[in-house]
Each structure stands twice: as C-alpha cells, then as structure tokens.
Amino acid sequence: MEEALKLRRATYHLWTFTISKLISSFGSQVYAFAISFYILQLTGSATSFAANLICNILPRTMVAPFAGYVADNYSRKKIVIFAQIATTLAIGGLLFISLTSGLSLVVIYTTTAVLSLTTQFSGVAFTSSITGLVDENRIQRAMSLNQMSISFAAIGSPAVGGLLYGTVSMPVFLMMYMIASVVAVILESTMNFTLFAKRKEAVEGEPKETMLENMKAGLSYLRLQPALTAIIWLLLSINFLFGAFMVGYAFILIEKMKMPSEHFGLTEGAFAVGMLLMSVYLSARKDLKYPLLVGKRGIIVMGILMAGIGLPLIISIPYNWMFAFYATIMFSFGVTQIIVNTPLMVWMQKSIDDDFKGRVFSIIETMAMALMPLGMVIYGFLYDVLPAQWILIASSLVLVGVVLILARPSIIRKAHPEIEGEAVEIKVAGESGV
Length: 434
Prior knowledge:
Its main location: membrane. The chain has 434 residues and is mainly alpha-helical. The protein has helices spanning 2-43, 46-73, 76-100, 105-128, 130-133, 139-167, 170-189, 211-223, 226-241, 243-256, 261-284, 291-308, 311-314, 319-351, 357-385, 388-406, 409-415, 418-431.
C-alpha cells in the first residue's frame, strides 16, 4: 500500500516537475528575448548587448562549484524554493524600478546577474533531485519530459517574446513573468524531494567537512569511477568541438550561402522540432537497455551530420534543395542531441551516489561553460583563415575518434557489465545448438 502511494506521488512529481521546468525555461527565454530587444532599442550598441550576456554567463560559472556543495549538504527542496523566490523578487524589483524611475542598463545588468545565480542554484539542486522525486523506472521519462520542456520553450519563446514585446509594455510583461514565477514556487513547495532519495544521514557529533574538503571529496569520488570520468571527458569534448557547428553553421548559411534570415530561422526551428519529437518519443517508450551504448552511437551520428554541413560548399546544389538539405540536417541534429543527452543523463542519474550528485553535476557544468566559449573563440578564428568545409570535416573526425577512445568497449562493459553476461549466454546457447 505504501509503495503504491509513493508511485502515485512520483507520478504527481513527474507532472509538477515538468510544468515547473516549462514555466522557468519559457519565462527565462522570453525574458532574455525581450530584454535583449530592449537593450538594443535603448542603446543600439552590440557592446551593451554583449555585456548583458556576460552578466548571464560569468556569475553562473563563478558559483557553479559552490552550488554543487550547497546541493549536496543542504535541503534541495529549500534551495529550489528559495532560488525561485529570489527570481520572483528580482523581477518584482525590476518591475518596481520600471514603474517609478524607468529602466537603466545598470538595473538590467544587475537583474540578469541575480537571475543567473538563482538559475544556477535551482538547476543543480533540481538535477540532483531527480532520483529522489521519481522511481528508478521512470527516470528516463523524467529526463525526457525535462528536455521536452526545454525544446518547447526554444520553439515558442521567440514567437511569444516577439508578440508580447510588440503588444504590451515592459511593466505588463514583467508582471506576467512574476506571476508565472509565483506559480512555479507554489508547485515546487508541494513536491517531496526525498521520496526515493538515498542520501546518507549526518551522524551527530561527527566533524563536518569544510567546503574545500567537501569539493575535494567530490573529485576523489570521480577518480574512483573510471566509466563516469570517461563519459564526463567525452561530454566536455563534445562541448568544445560543438563550437565548429555553432560558429560554422550560421557562418556558412548567412555568409557563404547568402540564405535569407526567414529561411535561416526555419532551419533552426527544425532543430527544436527534432528535439521536441524525440523527447516525446523517449518519454513514452520503456527505458533504453544500454543507455551508454545508445549515446555512443548517437555521438558518432552527430559527427557525420557535422561533416555534412559543409557538403554544399563542395558540391553545388540548387537553392531549394540546399534549404531542404539544411532543414533535414538540423532536424536530425535535434533528434540526435536528445538521443545523446537523455540516455547519458539517465545513466549518470542512476550511477552517481545521491550524496555526490550536486558536486559532480556542478563540475560538469563549470567545465562545460568554460570550454564552450573557448571553442567558439578558437573556431571563430579558424573560420576566418581556413575553408569552412574542411574545419567541419576535421572536427567531425576528431569527435568520432574521441568517442571511440573514451567510450571504448572496456568502458561500456564497466558501465553495463550485463552486456558481457548476455554475450556469454548467447555464445553458450550457440554452442549447445539451442
């Protein structure tokens, strides 16, 4: 009876978690869209626009390790709720200033920095709590629904942001965002973050680790998990090498192919649609048996797709066929990204001890946030001096090589020891003539 109640509660968590993530993802992306337009209209300066992006990225990068420590040592539910309340207050403060004295760049930058911090703490705490909110059999569904929320926000936020920005005033827009944030707080307060959690209870009288010792313990834990360490390095390599795609795609279509902005936007929309459809599919199907193996194959396909982006630079094709080709490539990229992200995240959720999840996920995020801008800067320079198609082909070959080395069969067997057992069973069955 108790188990049935827990499962019913987990079902409730699946939907409240999804709605909460949808509100936060949609709200933050619509806000980012509207505030970017506002800054550009106010100043007409790309530097002012870039400064707002820095105010979003820099605080998150700086506090990411601390966010992991906090998530592993304090109540994750309180962290999520306090972070969402802080988001509500920050938007409320911006609303108050816009009504009384008008918005200034300093106020906008400060609000962006505060929202960046709250997003970081909330994100790490929420990600670390998945296995506490839902039963193990539905972790894949939870991760798929999370990706679905992000994809839906990516598709809808530019349209909604553009519509709202053109039809309502900034105070009305901020009021709507604040109300949505309050709804998210109410939803999160009804969730039991420890329903299936396996965190160790603190022993009374036992000396508490300092923050530095706690973070060192997280790194020591990783060193004892060779499969996990290999997969983390693989994910970081993807983040760096993906700079070839992120910089090269827009450069090739806009600069080399002279594609109109509306057609370029449609190809990017195909990416979000691919992500959304694949997320829906994975949320409805049973758990993948060997998520790491699926992720490995997905990364290889991703490498092939990356090389394909440069194909129209080598082979001349009519414009309509070129547009259809890039829309198909981007749709496939969206599908493949979910095939890679969701199984790998499910495997990590099941493999990492609850007491270390916050630190491990914050280490991944810190390094990823550092490597992605670095990759974009390096590739930005390379695209100015080398042919784009050869940069993409070389990067895709490196990506495939990295996945074959870091996700080699011995690592896959460590992550999924049952593969070897099944291979032995098949061999014995074959030898016995069954």
